[in-house]
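Can anyone check this?
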Amino acid sequence: MASGINRRDFIKLGTFAGITVMFGRLPALQAREVHSGAQTSEWMAPDGNVKYRWDAIRKVTGEKVFARDFRSKNLPGWPEKQAHGFFLKATDVEHAFDDIDLSMLGPDLQPDRVLKHADLEKDGVRVPELADLGVGFYGQDFLLPAGNTAPLYGHPVALLIFHDFDRFEAAKRRLRFETTAVKYGRKTGLIQPPNYGAARYVRIGGETPSAPPAFAPIQDAVIWGNFDGDTPTWPKADPDGIFVPRSVLLPHRGGGGVRDPLKVAQQTDEPMRRGMAAAGIIEAEIEAARNNPAKLVVQRQGFSQSIDPSAMEPDNGNAWYDASTRTLHVLIAAQSPYEVARVAAFMVKDNKRFPVEKIELVSGTTVGYGSKDHSIFPFYTIAACFYGDGLPVRLANDRYEQFQLGMKRHSIEMDLTLVADRKTGKFEVLKAFYNCNGGGRANFSFSVAQVAATAAQSIYYFPKSDLATAAIATAAVEAGSMRGYGTLQAMSITELLIDEVAAQLGMDAIELRKRNALQAGDPNTQGAVQLGDPRNLEMLDLASSHPLWLNREQEKVKYEAANPGRRYGVGFAQVQKDYGTGADTTALLLEFDAAGKITMRHCVQEIGTGATTAQQVMVQRLLGKAPDIAIFGETNFAQLPLKSNFEPFSITQEQQDEFARDPFWVPAILPAMSASNSVYFIGFGTRQAAQFLLENTVWPAAQAIWSSGPAGGQLASGYMTAKDLRAVPGGIGGGGMAPIAFEAIARKAHEMGLVTGVALHCFSRWQWARADFEIPGLGIKNLPADAIAVRYGDAAPESLKARMSTGGYDFIKRSNVQFPSAQRNNAGVTTYTPAACLVELNVNTFTGHVEIMNHHSLLDPGNIIVPALVSGQQQGGIAMGIGHALMEELPLYGDGPGNGTWNFNRYRLPRAKDVAVWTQTATYLDPLTETSPPKGLAEVVMIPVVAATGNAITHAIGTRFYHLPVTANKIKKALML
C-alpha cells in the first residue's frame, strides 16, 4: 500500500506536560477515522434517506482496513523494517516469579532483545498514573519484577523482541503452551492489590414519588466504604469521629466522583451517617415485613459470569521511537485515541533515558465493544518501542493472547431482597449488594460496580432502596469497560426476580410490572428524575397484547403434545439502560463556502456503530444537504482554544465556580467513544451547530431571496418565521415558499457577510451547560454550549474579518455561564432508553439444550436518525445477550483464560442458528413528537433478552435459574431433581 501523505498532513492535537502531540491522517490508506478515504455522495438519496452506511463501500471492498493490518513500511516516514514482540506471562499467582528460561528455543530462535522489569525500572519506563484515573488504574508494573508474585493470571513477565518476522513467529509458536519457560520460586500465596472501592446508594422517598425524600444520594450523599478484608465497612449511624473512606471513584459512565478521602470525610461525614441511619430504617422494615403476612419478602442470590468481548480485532499496536528527533510515533487500535495520546504524554514526560518532545499518533479503525476503552495495551506498545534498536516494534495479540490478556466483562455476585404488598403488588423496598470481581487491575471496576447498583432498579419505582456495591481485587483477568457496563449483570437478575415475585403473588408478570413501572417525573434510586417520559407503561401494554404472550399457555400445550421430549416456554423482561457518562462533550466545526460546499470536522470516532453516518444525516435534516467534506475523530480545534483539568467527575462546586471565570475553561474537552453516547450527547452538538446556522444564516439568506423581485417577492404576501423552515432535497423550503438550493443560500449568505461557519463545544453533566454569547450582528445569544467561535462570510466588513484571529474564526468569549451543579454527579444517570423482549423457546429434556425459536423486541429509540443502524444494533445486541444467557462463560482463575490455553475452540459464541435470526421481529415506538431527541441504544438492546430467556426456561421446565449462563448441563441437572 502506498500513500501520498506528507508532514503537512499531520495536524496538531495539543500539548500535554510540555510534549507536543500530533494526530496523523492517512487518506490513501484509510487507516484513520478522521479521514476514512475518498468520499462519495451515493450513500445518501436526494431526499436524505440513507441507502447504506457512509463507510459501507470501503468496508465491503476491503478499502477500509483496521489498525492491525499495518506494518511500518505502510506508514509514511517510518522505517521499512519492522520488529515484532510478544510476552511471556505468569500463570502461577501463588509463587514468586523467579526468571525465564528460553533454552527450548535453541540458538536460532533466541530473541534480539529480552525485556524485563529491571530494564524498564532502570530506564524510568513506568505504568502511567494520572490523578484523574486514580492509583493503580493500569496496575503497578508493565512487567512483573523478579521476586514478586503476579497480581493476576496472565500478567506479563518478559517481552521478547525479534527483528524479523519468521523467527518471531516460530519462537512464538514454540513457546505458546510451554509451561517451563517461566520459573517460579518461593510460595507466597495470593498477593492482590487493595480492593478498588465500595459505595452505597440509600433512598427513603416521601409519601408520593414526587414528594421530597427523607434521604437521597442526589440530595444528601453517596455513602463511601472501607474494607475489612473483602467485606465493605460503612460509617456508623451514631457519630464517634470522622469516617474516612478509602474508596476512590474512577471516571465512569455516570456517577459521582471523589479524590481526596479526607476532604470527602469532612464534607460528607454527617450526611453519610444520616444515610446509614436511613439504611437501618430500611433493614428494620424488611425484618418487620418478614413477620407480616400481608407482605411478601423474596431474597435471592444471583451471579453473572465473566465473558470475553470477542471483538473482531484483537488488541494491537505499532510504535517507533526516533531518538534523533525525540519523536514517538504510535499506531494504535483504540476507541478514544485522544485519551491514549493524553496518557502517553504523561507516561513519557519525565523520561531521561528516552526523551520525548513530540508524539505523532495514528489511530486505525477498530471495534472493541468497550474493551479498547482505556486499555493498557497501547502503553505496552509504547514501552516496547524504546527497545527496538531503532526499529518500530509491533505487538499484536493472537486469539490465545487476547483471551489471556484482553479485558473481560465483570462477573458480579448479587444478593437481592424485595418487599411487596401482597394485596396490591406494589413494591416497597429493594435492598441489594453487588460484589464485582475486578480482576488484578483496577481499570473501571469500581465504576462498573457503581453503575450496577444504580441500574439495579430496572424500570421500577421503589419508595425505599438500599443498594450497596463493592469492586474487589482478585487474581482474575482484568475486567473493564465492556458493553453493558454493569447494567446487564444487575438488571438481568432483577428481571428474573420480578417474575418470581409475580408467581408468588399469583399475578401476571407483565401486570405486576405495570403496577410498579416508573412514570414521568418519578425519581430513580439516587433521587434523580430522568429525561422525558420513560414510556414503560406503553411498552408493557404492547408486550401484554402480543400473540407470543397472549397465547403462551395454549401454545405450550399444543407444542409439547406434538414434540415429545421438548418443553415449550415464553418469557418476558423489560429494562431501561442509561446512556452517557456524566461528563459528555461535543466539539465540531460546521462551515460552508460561497459555492455551497459544506465542511464538517467532528470529534466523533467511528467504532462500528455508524456514528459517522448519523452525524451527517443530522446536518442534512436541518440544512437540506449533507457535508461535502466530513472529517471525523478530530481532536484539535484551533478555533476553540479550550483548557480543562480533566477531572469532571471529582470537581467541587467551589472549584467549578472558580474555573468557570475563565472563558476558555470547560469541565472536559473531548468525549470518550463509549456509553452509547454518540447519537444523543455527541450528536447534540451536531444538531446545535446546524440549528445555529439554520436560524442565524440560512433564514436571513432565504428571507432575502424570497423577498427579492417585484412587490417584495413571494414572501411579502404571507407570514413566515425561522421555525417554518424545512429541509428539502438539496436545500431549504417551507411556509409554502419555492425551495431554494443550498448553493444559492450559501452564495447569498456570503454576499451578505453573514456567519458562514460555527465551531462549538457542549458539555452535559446530566444537564446541559448554557452561556450567553454576544455575537456581532446577532446580539446576545443564550445557547446550550460553553464555547463557540464563528466565521463571517466573504463580504463581511473588514472589522469583522479582523476578529477572525483564532484558527480563522472569531472566538466569542462567553458570559453568564451556567454549568450543571457538581452535586449532579450524585444523580447517577438521567438519560435512559427502555427496551423489552419476548422470547419463545423449547428445551430438549434429554440434552438440556435450549433452542430459541423466536423473539420479539420492543424499543423506544426516540427520533431515529438512521433506521438501518438501529436495526443492526438491535440484531447484534440480541445475539450478544443470548450468548450471555445460554453459553458464553469464562472461569475466573486457574482454569480460565489467564492460563493461556483458551481460544474459540473452548469458548462458544452464538451463531445464526442459536439466535432465531430468520424469525426475529421488533417494534420501535414512534417518537412522542417530531422534536423528541434520539436515544442511545447500542447497549440496552442486548439486556432484556438475557432475563427473558431465563424466564422462558422457567416457563418451560418450572425451574428458576439465578446463576448465568443457563447451560445445558444446569438444565439437565434441574430436570433430574
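Reply from J.R.: I decoded it. The two ends are 63 Å apart (CA to CA).
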